[in-house]
Amino acid sequence: MSEVPQIIELAGVVDPFLNGGKLISYTSRYLTKTGENYGSIMLAITAKVQRLSGDVEELALVAKLPPITNDFLWNIFQPERTCRTEIAIYKYVAPALRQLQWEMELDEEEIFDGFSTYYGSRVSLDPDSTRVDRNALLVQENLQASGFKPGNREKMFDLPHAKFILKEMAKYHALPIALRVKRPQVFEEDVRPYFQHFNIDSGLGEKEKKQVETDLLEQVAIATNNAERYVEGVRELYGDLQKFRDAVDVVKDNLYSTIVHYDLWINNIMLKYDDNGLPWKVKFVDFQISQYGSLAHDLVFFLFSSVESAALDQHFDELISLYYQSFLSCLNSLKIPTESYSYVGFLKEVHKQAPIEIATALFMVKIILADHSTLPDDYKDLDLSVMSKNVGKEHIIKRTSDIIRLAEKYNFFLS
């Protein structure tokens, strides 16, 4: 790995969140390995903080920087938009949702606590600047130091994990809907402006876009023994995904429109376990490409990108129903009328959005399961070649085959 990027004026960002304390010094190191994170540089910070009492203590933080060492990823992730969106989650959305739950007097076990603690942010060293530059910064608690374990992209979630995560995901989706209904002014001023449609493909050239599609179709051809029906079906699905990403229409409010994470896979889910080894708490992270849209996007993408094939094969209807019931339960606890949320209507919404997320899951397989031998040693060298190098890898082909088979089984594409 290259030298750890220097963070200029870190104290100016975190001191206002130290309850009167101040940052004295800090050390930093890379938090993630190459291939574990693409849209940002993640640094683990050990901060020495002097409290009002004079005592000095260590505080474990994470500093998130835009991809300042990789121009290719800078162009793809477009920090002018993605940094603002993620900062808005911690600066505006999380506090608003927490306040709403407190005002509705939810029991402690009902409250959604899926965001990490916020320790400040900036878009530039210039306090008067509104433009994101290469000194943009987001600081959060280090969840690993708080006992949370990151997901392992080489190991899909089993049934108990999937059930637990879906219950919390349902709360994450229900809460912004409740905020929109009960606090419309807060929603319109502090939420909606930051979550407009985002096209991650707009940073790619035509040649690069074509290479991505070629790699995907080659992957599908290998996984299906060159079955034309599946290759052409995925070609059509991927075309629909491109149309979806290119869309410019403003998403309208409906029963299922909320703040969609749009990247809710293994690496962006951290879990804490109880004494019996069962998942007890969850934190969702990496909200860079979050958008306002249908909750079905997160639901389908999570299932097909991050849950064991056997669990999907045997318990898919159970998982979908569990999410639905948890979603209704959260809305009911917030005194939001749910008469319009029929299960039939919910399933229609899932089936409407599913093909887009099947295409996304197929595209993401080569990233999620990328062989370590195909990854560069340094973050600055990451590019699209990672996907090309992973076409044909046995475990990727197996997962590709499973996604296609299960998508067809549940009528998500191909008649």
From TrEMBL:
Top-rank lineage group of the source organism: Eukaryota
Q: Name one Pfam family in it.
A: EcKL
Identify the residues that the record assigns to the CHK kinase-like domain, covering every copy.
138-333
Kindly give the SMART domains that the UniProt entry links to this protein. CHK (SM00587)
Q: Which SUPFAM superfamilies match?
A: Protein kinase-like (PK-like)
InterPro entries given for it?
CHK_kinase-like, EcKL, Kinase-like_dom_sf
Gene3D superfamilies referenced in this protein's UniProt entry, alphabetically:
3.90.1200.10
The record ties this protein, via PANTHER family, to: BHLH DOMAIN-CONTAINING PROTEIN (PTHR11012:SF55), PROTEIN KINASE-LIKE DOMAIN-CONTAINING (PTHR11012)
Q: State what protein this is by name.
A: CHK domain-containing protein
